[in-house]
Design brief:
Elements: H1 6-23, E1 46-51, H2 67-83, E2 88-94, H3 110-113, H4 124-134, E3 138-143, E4 147-149, H5 162-165, E5 170-173, E6 176-179, H6 184-200, E7 205-208, H7 225-231, H8 238-260, E8 265-268, H9 291-294, H10 299-304, E9 310-311, H11 326-337, E10 343-348, H12 367-375, E11 381-387, H13 389-394, H14 399-407
Parallel strand pairs: 1-2, 1-11, 2-3, 3-7, 7-8, 8-9, 9-10, 10-11
Antiparallel strand pairs: 4-6, 5-6
């Protein structure tokens, strides 16, 4: 290693000054202590991958592996992220009202051992944080806030599960169980459970996915009548009340993270359409499900009011899609993020590349690379996250390899 060049020394000094300025920001005050309206000079670029654990989607490859086998698979995912030029791993540590760390509030995840509540003999989250940081990666703790189970039978949960002990917290919808966000005690509990991870580990961020109220299913009703009767009196419609419940969950979680570990960020990866322009003139030129109306997530408000540190909308459509065109959604989200203080990263559907049954655009290995090229035209976009880790590994169409060749030849620090 040679001596630092003047330019490198100057950049290091500038980074230190920015870090010091961030440290002086008022904890819990979203938007204070950081500039709005575009990138910081020292911002870096998000190059992330989602590492999903629900139903063993990405990791572990199956439940019941030994601790040594699970650890080896996890480290392989981290090493692969480095090899592909990525800088962030978004690790699903609370897939279904359970935990991938020793939590005093919720049971060990069944996706580790095959048995809910069984100690796997090691600490996956603690290991992931330490090993990611050792490799220069950020580790974001990905939590699903309200899903209780991917089945609809409460008796399949262990007897000590909070959902068994508090059956009035739970709503059956379709083939799954959910916590009811209309109950203040539910919102308080799920925040307590998730903040335990923030208190114990130096995670770089907490990350919510796109599941708030469940996605609509034909013939199904989310039965929250009693909660609405008890807590919805100030609202003219149930939809407004439901949106307020999710708003409260988001705001309170942001404040809890800031109190528990100042400097840890909070990001959300919602469905990629807020509202269609045919519904709302502020909406996008799309004809798709609307997160505002269908899952009661007012994602645009969270950005405009800077309640969260970053948003990563799942723009899982190809360029030219007739219902939701990637090329139209990028400028829409860029305009939403402009001047807000909330960073904009884009969720990319790597899993569609080369997959059977997908449109012809997804059979072209250059499709994802074109996404990054198009997004680079908008300075508000500060990076991309790819779903998911097993697709980074398999890369059947060579789409990830093309992204790396076209865009990730040089390393980049993650946004700070």
């Amino acid at each position: 290693m040679g001596r630092l060049s003047r330019r490198t020394f100057a950049l290091a000094a500038l980074s230190a000054l920015v870090t010091a300025a961030e440290a002086q920001a008022v904890p819990g005050s979203r938007g204070q202590g950081r500039p709005a309206g575009g990138r910081w000079a020292s911002e870096g670029e998000m190059r992330g991958v989602w590492l999903a654990t629900v139903t063993n989607r990405d990791w572990p490859s199956r439940s019941g592996l030994t601790a040594e086998q699970q650890r080896a698979e996890l480290l392989t995912h981290l090493d692969r992220a480095v090899d592909r030029g990525l800088n962030t791993v978004i690790f699903q540590v609370r897939p279904s009202a359970d935990a991938l760390w020793p939590s005093p509030h919720e049971p060990w995840s069944q996706y580790l051992t095959g048995t809910q509540g069984q100690d796997p003999g090691w600490d996956p989250l603690g290991t992931a944080v330490a090993e990611a940081h050792r490799r220069g990666l950020e580790l974001h703790a990905w939590c699903n806030p309200l899903r209780v189970a991917v089945h609809s039978d409460p008796t399949r949960l262990i007897a000590s599960h909070p959902a068994r002990r508090n059956p009035d917290w739970v709503v059956k919808y379709g083939s799954r169980l959910y916590y009811n966000p209309g109950l203040p005690e539910v919102r308080a509990f799920v925040q307590q459970a998730m903040l335990d991870a923030v208190a114990k580990y130096p995670v770089d961020a907490v990350h919510f996915d796109d599941y708030f109220y469940p996605y609509p299913e034909a013939g199904q009703t989310f039965d929250d009548d009693r909660a609405y009767d008890q807590h919805g009196g100030d609202f003219s419609t149930r939809a407004d009340w439901r949106r307020d419940n999710i708003d409260r969950l988001v705001r309170d979680m942001a404040d809890g993270i800031a109190r528990t570990r100042p400097g840890t960020r909070f990001g959300i990866s919602p469905f990629g359409v807020w509202r269609n322009a045919s519904t709302d003139p502020l909406g996008s030129d799309t004809r798709a499900l609307q997160s505002y109306d269908d899952v009661y997530a007012d994602t645009r408000r969270w950005v405009r009011e800077n309640w969260i540190d970053y948003i990563c909308p799942q723009l899982y459509w190809h360029i030219g899609n007739s219902a939701a065109d990637y090329a139209k959604l990028i400028p829409w989200w860029a305009e939403v993020a402009k001047g807000s203080g909330t960073r904009l990263h884009i969720g990319e559907a790597l899993y569609k590349a080369g997959a059977s049954g997908q449109p012809a655009a997804w059979q072209d290995p250059a499709e994802l690379s074109r996404h990054l090229t198009l997004a680079a035209e908008h300075p508000e976009v500060s990076g991309h996250v790819f779903f998911g880790a097993k697709d980074v590994a398999a890369d059947p169409a060579g789409a990830m390899a093309r992204v790396v060749a076209d865009h990730y030849r040089r390393s980049a620090a993650p946004p700070r």
